Amino acid sequence: MADTEDCAALLVRSNFFGDILAGCCEAEVAAIARAFRPSRFDSGQLIFSREDTGDFLLMIASGRVRLSIMSDEGRELSVRHAVRGDIIGEIAVLDGLPRSADASALSDVRCFMLFRSEFQALVRAFPDVSIRLIELLCARLRSTTNQLEAIALHPIEVRLARFLLVALGGRQAEPGKRVPLELGFSQSELAQLLGASRPKVNAALGFLEDIGAIKRTADRLFCDPVLLAQTARHPNDA
Fold first, then answer.
1. Which residues pair with 214 in a beta bridge?
2. Within this chain, do residues 133 and 165 fall inside the same structural domain, yes or no?
3. Which of 31, 69, 194, 208 is the right S-S partner for 213, CB 3.0 to 4.6 Å?
4. Which residues, 6 or more positions from 227, have their beta carbon under 8 angstroms from its beta carbon?
């Protein structure tokens, strides 16, 4: 019962399901939540692999999941991270084809699993789910396009500044202060997300620190959003 209540609370607050369920009563939301099955993954555990059969999607309740792809040469590229409220594994559930990326737990992960058959029943019961899916997939495509553009066209300092601004989520600093930011993952993982080597990311962090845009401590960054925004505006964008 507690899992169903937790899933229902997460559903109505999630970016994907929230709008769809806005007009539903509590009993209807609870009925939908019962279609989800609670699941857990340990830190470092592989959740699914590229080319696996995709018969379920996951809604993250807590923790952080890395979506990544591996080249034939063994180089890994992190595509994105999924955190609380995010949906992963939806592409294979939609088209019935194998997974398009690996998913692994960067921390202990608690999530809710929805199998393809239950998902298809949900789509039939709530036609708006299809519209939200189109919006979700379009957002994924835009994000991937922006990521590829940044890697191809912008210096690492610009990419890092833009990444940190997104991570700040619009938070602004009080006069004379910086905004604390705890990334929750390693510098090597950050390098994968930015499509750069760890030494280059470390040098970019040093550059941002030299200009006062960030201050580093052992476990977090303290950011100046104004200076980060100035760095993020690459000359080619003008």
1. 223
2. no
3. 208
4. 208, 211, 212, 213
Q: Domain range for residue 231?
A: 154-237
d(CA 75, CA 141): 22
Please indicate whether residue 235 or residue 169 has the higher confidence score (pLDDT).
169
Residue ending a domain, among 151, 167, 200, is 151
Q: What is the residue-averaged pLDDT of the chain?
A: 87
30 or 23, which is more confident? 30
**Cα distances (Å, whole numbers) of residue 200 to 3, 189, 197, 210:** 43, 13, 5, 15
Q: Which two tokens stand for residue 115?
A: 């199998």
List the CATH number of the domain containing 143: 2.60.120.10
- How far is Cα 131 from Cα 109, in angstroms, rounded to an integer? 28
Structure tokens, 196:
């750069």
In this structure, what token pair is assigned to residue 124?
Answer: 């039939």
C-alpha span between 37 and 58 (Å, rounded): 9
165 neighbors 226 (Cβ within 8 angstroms): no
Q: Do 103 and 6 share a structural domain?
A: yes
Whether residue 46 is found in the same domain as residue 137:
yes
